[in-house]
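Support request from a user on the community tier.

User writes: "When I paste my C-alpha cells into the form, the page sometimes reloads and wipes my input. The last time it worked, I copied everything first. Here is what I submitted, just in case something in the input itself triggers the reload:"
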C-alpha cells in the first residue's frame, strides 16, 4: 500500500480550525446526525466533531441541531462540519488528540476496495491522531465488509479488536434503523490502539 501524503492536501474551503478538548471524538460520515446528536446530549463532558460530506444530509443534520438549540439546549460540545473528512482532519488535528472515532455504516464502495476505510493509506494517519488506548468503532450491515475490515485490522494494521453483532434494538443512525427494521443483521468492530503503537505520522503536524 502506498504511504499517505498529508502535506499534499489543500486547506478545505472555509476551514475554521477547531479547539480540540482533552476529551474529543470524531464521527466520519455523520449523515443526518442522529448518532451525533444523541452522543452529544448523552455525553456533555465529551466533545464530538461530526463530519458529513454530502450537502443535503449535512443540511438536514444542521436543521436538527437548530431544533434542539431552539429548545434551549446549547450543545456546545457538538461541532458539525460540512467537509470531506480526510483533508479536514489533516488540517484540524494534532497527533494523539482523539479519544475515539465513529465510522457508522460507511458506504462500502462495492466496486472500489481501495476506498474502504481500513484499505486506505489515510487509515494510518487516522491511527496517529488517536490517543493511546483510544478506539475506532466501525458498524456495517454488510457481512463481507465486516469480515474484510476485521482481517485488515488484524493482519495489516495489527490492532486488537472486539467484533460482535449489533443489538437488534439499537437505534443509533438512520441507516442502522433502516437495516434492522428490514430484519438484517448489523455488525460492529471496536478497534483499539495499543499504548505502544507507532505510525509514520506520530510526529507529523502542520507548521
Ligand atoms: C451510508 S451513509 C451513513 C450515514 C450515517 N452514518 C448513518 O448511518 O445513517 C455514509 C455517509 O458517509 C459520508 N461520507 C463518506 N465519505 C466521507 C468523507 N470522506 N467525509 C465525510 N463524509 C463522508 C457520505 O456522504 C454518507 O452520508
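"...and here is what came back when it finally went through:"
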Amino acid at each position: 500500500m502506498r504511504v499517505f501524503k498529508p502535506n499534499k492536501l489543500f486547506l478545505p474551503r472555509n476551514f475554521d480550525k477547531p479547539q480540540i478538548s482533552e476529551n474529543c471524538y470524531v464521527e466520519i460520515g455523520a449523515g443526518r446526525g442522529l448518532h451525533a446528536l444523541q452522543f452529544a446530549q448523552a455525553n456533555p463532558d465529551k466533545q464530538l466533531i461530526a463530519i458529513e460530506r454530502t450537502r443535503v444530509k449535512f443540511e438536514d443534520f444542521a436543521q436538527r441541531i437548530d431544533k434542539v438549540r431552539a429548545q434551549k439546549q446549547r450543545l456546545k460540545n457538538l461541532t458539525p462540519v460540512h467537509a470531506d473528512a480526510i483533508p479536514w482532519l489533516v488540517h484540524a488535528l494534532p497527533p494523539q488528540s482523539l479519544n475515539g472515532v465513529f465510522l457508522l455504516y460507511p458506504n462500502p464502495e462495492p466496486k472500489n476496495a481501495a476506498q474502504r476505510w481500513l484499505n486506505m493509506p489515510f487509515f494510518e494517519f487516522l491511527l496517529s491522531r488517536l490517543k493511546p488506548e483510544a478506539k475506532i468503532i466501525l458498524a456495517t450491515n454488510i457481512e463481507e465488509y465486516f469480515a474484510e475490515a476485521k482481517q485488515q485490522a488484524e493482519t495489516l494494521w495489527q490492532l486488537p479488536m472486539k467484533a460482535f453483532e449489533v443489538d437488534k434494538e439499537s437505534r443509533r443512525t438512520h441507516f442502522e434503523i433502516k437495516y434492522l427494521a428490514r430484519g438484517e443483521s448489523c455488525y460492529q468492530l471496536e478497534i483499539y490502539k495499543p499504548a505502544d503503537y507507532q505510525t509514520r505520522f506520530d510526529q507529523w503536524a502542520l507548521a
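Agent notes: The reload is a front-end session timeout and is unrelated to the input. The CA atoms of residues 143 and 149 lie 10 Å apart. DSSP finds six helices and seven strands in the chain. Escalated to web team.
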